[in-house]
Structure formats: structure tokens, C-alpha cells
């Protein structure tokens, strides 16, 4: 459980740095790309934290980001619409990592505020649930 607490704190910090980047007014292309990079590492930190939570608290196996988000939906931590959004977020994360096309970067950037809210909410919910265990 100590490992989970450490991971939760790391995820909270990553979410904060991601939000800080999103608060830059009229970002340059470089700042936009840096924000996308913060999305990528926040996404990685959060899904791995949730994977640990699911294993230790819910006894649910999940070995991939999409598996983790599906398990959150199945356990009731995410609603059906949030699960769909989380799966789309996983697809966008894969697109940012495996390709760089200006139009794709711009499209994904336009979704980042919503993703930031979702990632922070996931961490808030599992922090709350894990503190009761």
C-alpha cells in the first residue's frame, strides 16, 4: 500500500504540471508541444498508478492502458461516458507518441483540458477509495 501512496503522489504532481502547462495563454508551437509532452508523461504515470490500485485494492488484473480504463468502468469508478473518453484519450496518447503530424498535434491539443480534468478526477477517486482500505 505504501507503493500505491507514493504513486498517487507522483500522479498528483504530474497532473499539476500538466495543468500548469495548459494555463499558458496563447502558447507558441514549442509550448504546445511541451504541453503534449506533459500529457504523455501524466497519462503514463496515471495509468500505471491505476494499474497498481486495481491490483492491490480491487484485485482486478489490467495489463494495458485500455485494460485499466475498462476495469475502472467495470468497477464503477468511471461512468460509461468517462470510460469512452478515457479510451479515446489512450488512443490520442498513442498518436502523439508514434507520429508527428501538425494537424494531429493541434487536434489533440484541443482535447487536453478535458483530459486533464479526467486524469485528475481518476486520481482523486482512487485516492479516496484507497484511503478507506
Can you describe what's shown?
By secondary structure, the protein is mostly helical. The protein has one domain (2-131): Four Helix Bundle (Hemerythrin (Met), subunit A) (Up-down Bundle), CATH 1.20.120. The protein contains six helices and no strands. The radius of gyration is 15 Å and the shape is globular.
Unreliable residue runs: none
Q: Helix- and strand-based class?
A: mainly alpha
Share of helix among residues?
A: over 70%
- Fraction in beta strands: under 5%
Mean pLDDT: 94
Q: How many domains make up the 3D coordinates?
A: 1
Largest sheet: none
Pattern of helices and strands? HHHHHH
CATH superfamily: Nucleotidyltransferases  domain 2
CATH class: Mainly Alpha
What is the fold named in CATH at topology level?
A: Four Helix Bundle (Hemerythrin (Met), subunit A)
Number of helical regions: 6
Cα distance, first to last residue?
A: 9 Å
3D shape: globular
The beta-strand count equals 0
Per CATH, the architecture is Up-down Bundle
The value of Rg in angstroms is 15 Å
Defining traits:
133 residues; mainly alpha; Four Helix Bundle (Hemerythrin (Met), subunit A); 6 helices
Question: What would a concise description of this structure say?
Answer:
The chain is mainly α and 133 residues long.
Topology summary:
Layout: H1 2-22, H2 29-58, H3 65-74, H4 80-98, H5 102-109, H6 112-131
Helix pairs in contact: 1-2, 1-6, 2-3, 2-4, 2-5, 2-6, 3-4
